[in-house]
Amino acid sequence: MPQVTGVGGIFLRARKPSLLIEWYREHLGVPMTPHGAVTFHWNSGTTPDRPGSTTLAVFPHDTDYLGEPGQKAMLNLRVDDLTMMLTRLRARGVEVLDQTEDSEYGRFGWCVDPEGNRIELWEPAEGM
Q1: How many CA atoms lie less than 13 Å away from 21 in the CB half-sphere?
Q2: How far is residue 49's CA from residue 69's CA, in Å, rounded to a whole number?
Q3: Where do the domains of the chain lie, and which CATH numbers do they carry?
C-alpha cells in the first residue's frame, strides 16, 4: 500500500519574493537559490545523537502557536545553537519573540520574517 514517507517541502506565499529569499539567506543562513528554493538532504549534517527528522503536525484553527490568525503555516527550522541564533537575529534587527521553551524535544525560540510569518527555531535534544 502506498504511504507517505516524509515531508517533501514547505512552500511560502510572498508579496515580495526576492526580499524574502534574501532575508532567509542573510539572517537564517538558509542557502536559497536565486529562484527561492533549497533542498535539505537529511543524510548530511546529522550525527548519531542528532539524526535528521522532519515533523508534520496539525493544530486547531484557533491556536496562537502559529502566530497571527492569518498565518496558515509555520516553518520549524533546526538550529545548532539556539541562544547564539536568537542573539544574532536580535543584533540584526529581526523581530524575535521574548519567550523560549525547553522540553524533552529540545529548545525552541521564535522569530518573524519580513512577511509577518512566525518561524520556530529548534535546537533538538540529543537523540532527536
Answers
A1: 10
A2: 36
A3: 67-124 (3.10.180.10)
Write down the pTM of the prediction.
Answer: 0.80
C-alpha cell at 67: 502566530
Closest CA to 86 of 109, 107, 102, 65: 109
> What is the 8-class DSSP label of residue 43?
T
DSSP assignment of 58-122, as one string? ---TT-STTSSTT----EEEE-S-HHHHHHHHHHTT-EE-S--EEETTEEEEEEE-TTS-EEEEE
| CB-based contact 21:119 (threshold 8 Å) | no
Can you tell me which residue has the cell 538550529?
79
- pLDDT tens digits for range 49-81: 777 777 777 777 888 888 888 888 889 988 889
